[in-house]
Amino acid sequence: MNIPVSAAPVGFWAATAMIACIVLCSTVGEVLTAGAMKSIGDLDDIRAHSGMKGAIRAVVTCPLFFAGVGFLALAFFALLFALNHLNLSLVAPASASLTLVTNAIAAKIFLKENVDRRRWTAAVLVCIGVYFLAH
Amino acid sequence: MPHHKLSPHQYTILGLVALCAPLGDTCLSRGMTKLPAISLAHPVTLIAAVFTPWIALGIALLIGFFASYLTALSWADLTFVLPTTAFGNVIVALIARFWLHEAISWQRWLGVVLITVGVGFVAHGPSLTERPADTKSAPENANLQAPRAGETIDSQRASQRVKEQVL
Predict the structure, then answer these.
(1) What is the ipTM of this complex?
(2) What values do phi and psi take at B36, rounded to 5?
(3) How many domains, in total, are found in chain A?
(4) Do B118 and A122 touch (CB under 8 A)?
């Protein structure tokens, strides 16, 4: 089975591996970044009290933020590589949607977020949506 | 301020996240498809690609996305921000179809619709998991006990209603 591509044909497993790399790096990066932002607090409040410089200082002095950005940078270069071989209409929705599901699991485990029935239903709908997107 | 009620300013931030991400991705796609195929044996060519006009514009848009995204994460759950901004997938499909002239089958359109419906589910729920510290700033919740980690004020109200009905 070949995936629709912009340049040379790419096999199903190669396309899956490219998208999996993006999803893995994005999930780790986003969970770390979300944890960092929660530890910093509401940026709008910080900006109201300390101005834009205070808000930027609060973000750039958080080590967890840089760990998250590191993984998001890896995800970005994985995305660039995938876009060189696959169509945008496959890569962007598939990686974004799968990241949503892996993030829901990671956010429940690591960030202790309340992932209720409503959010799980959304995750399932997105999974089915991704199945159709890949065809 | 109850965190599950978003202000117009906060909706604007979410809108910027939804808009900047697909536009940035589209610029990246436009730039990358114009380049010759890049192999893993020459990863440095990926760095050089960053300085081409379309890729640079895409990166500028994605920086705008990231700033809005960080702001949104500071007052909403990750599991709320990601789905509500997934509406960008619809924008990507429209851009891919009408600007990049990619063929979009009816299955892919159905996938986009399902994702949008999923996003609708999340968007109607609370935006933030309440923590014990958050309840101090919400006088209307004073009669409620401090929620445990992972429990929302909404779920407390629901359980309180059930208790009242039982009694």
Answers:
(1) 0.73
(2) -65, 160
(3) 1
(4) yes
